[in-house]
Specification:
Number of strands: 4
Strand content: 5-15%
Strand order of the largest sheet: 1-4
Distance between the termini: 90 Å
Radius of gyration: 30 Å
Largest sheet: 2 strands, antiparallel
């Protein structure tokens, strides 16, 4: 049955409120537990079955999340729940391509101002889709380019939340996500994961210590022989670049005008010599 018709669902003994709750939990379960989610969950791509069961289909648009990326999403969800501006800002940085900004304190200040304007109401009235879409404006202001998974995640969560609120107006989508986020972050500090990470770090450290003397020796030989070069990449400020762009355009135009005038002078000289009336 169509999931966007609460009246019809009730006629078929399907509880819209329970269906909304299950749909929200299904979305978080896909992202946090499986790391593989349906990226286009609109009403046409799902149906309701008897027993308050949600069925998804049309898997043409899917997305995969790495464990590290899932942890950042979980931190963001926790930050929104606890209204922790710093945690939200750090989580967003971790989900961007740059992972750093010129002024971290300014970003945290803008996120704090954003949360005061958009996240200070009762938690049950907050809409994660609206919040994340408005938050993109803050990210653009700081020239943060987010990873593709972030945009697909916003899209999927916004679509699911819109359906959920239609089925159950009191649906607290952010609160439903908190246990999944807590579990995800809890695994990060679990004994098994800590031992695994420590083992991996120890292995890398041992390999580094083995190769370090040879690497230093090779570096010393290159410097001594004058064969060592340091690549330098210069990043031009957009404002300075615009000024440089205008200057180069001006120079190019002058050269073009000079070439045209020279050509006319040469041609008129040829016409004069050939005695053409």
């Amino acid at each position: 049955y169509a999931v966007d018709d609460p009246g019809a669902l009730r006629k078929h003994q399907i509880d819209p409120v329970k269906l909304a709750d299950r749909l929200a939990k299904l979305s978080y379960q896909q992202m946090f537990q499986f790391g593989f989610f349906h990226a286009d969950p609109h009403p046409g791509n799902m149906t309701a079955l008897k027993g308050d069961v949600i069925a998804l289909y049309d898997y043409g648009m899917m997305s995969k999340l790495t464990p590290a990326f899932r942890e950042k999403i979980a931190s963001m969800i926790m930050g929104l729940n606890e209204k922790d501006n710093r945690l939200v800002a750090r989580s967003l940085l971790g989900m961007s391509d740059e992972t750093v900004v010129a002024n971290t304190e300014k970003l945290e200040g803008d996120v704090e101002m954003f949360t005061e304007e958009n996240v200070n109401g009762p938690l049950k009235d907050l809409r994660i889709g609206v919040i994340l879409n408005r938050l993109l404006e803050v990210l653009m202001k700081h020239k943060l380019r987010m990873k593709a998974e972030f945009y697909l995640g916003i899209k999927a969560l916004s679509q699911v939340e819109a359906i959920g609120v239609m089925l159950s107006p009191d649906l607290n989508f952010i609160k439903i996500g908190k246990p999944y986020a807590t579990e995800m972050l809890g695994k990060k500090w679990g004994v098994h994961d800590l031992l695994h990470n420590a083992s991996a770090a120890l292995e890398v450290t041992v390999d580094t210590l083995k190769t370090m003397p040879y690497d230093f020796h090779e570096l010393y030989q290159k410097i001594r022989s004058g064969k060592y070069s340091i690549p330098i990449v210069h990043k031009i400020d957009p404002i300075s670049y615009e000024s440089l762009h205008q200057t180069l355009n001006h120079i190019t135009n002058r050269i073009a005008h000079a070439m045209v005038l020279s050509s006319l002078l040469i041609l008129s000289g040829l016409l004069f010599v050939s005695k053409v009336p």
